[in-house]
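Input for the complex:
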Amino acid sequence: MGVDVVSPEKLASALSEHWSPRVIAEVDDAYVKVAKVQGTLAWHSHDQEDEFFYVLAGTLRIEMEDRTVDLHAGDAFVVPKGVRHNPVADQECHLMLIERKSTKHTGDVVTEKTRSLAEQLRPV
Amino acid sequence: MGVDVVSPEKLASALSEHWSPRVIAEVDDAYVKVAKVQGTLAWHSHDQEDEFFYVLAGTLRIEMEDRTVDLHAGDAFVVPKGVRHNPVADQECHLMLIERKSTKHTGDVVTEKTRSLAEQLRPV
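Predicted:
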């Protein structure tokens, strides 16, 4: 992982399942992931880890308790550690994410959409 | 830093100086940076840190001792820790980088192009 040139957008496009992030590169104690999303994930937080979102295609809304941000293709945003958030995509959206290896998909919340790290490490 | 939505490509476009990365977001112990590059930087390595490259616009060639990779817009690549590399852009190229806070611009090599972390933390 991480030894070849990859196209995050091509990899995100190739995913068949929504809200199922896949690791595409390792950078020290962080993973770079891609995801294809539509609809909503779940309200959750990561108490110890910041989370970096970069929109490859489409639009992502990140609802937080005190505000909401809209990210369009090419936009980036960091959800600071401890901030409860809920990602929402009205239409299909492709994301690149940077998360610490310790980051759990939906924090301490577990839903049917929650993916384990092992699931995220499957090849695209 | 990192509390607002940012457009890495717009920020990279706004830079006036080549090879002068700027921090645009903080993700735990890592910085997300943008840079506008043309020509060559310097052969160097980061002995303790991986370095993530994502090409926002243009083409970047990364020369390494055992191979060379060409990254086009939308491509990503990780230079593993300890690997000597030399980034080259025949034409102007815009980059997004993910580096640990401890990463030095040109490793232990210092040239006239080397930028301190303080310089990289100046607002775009």
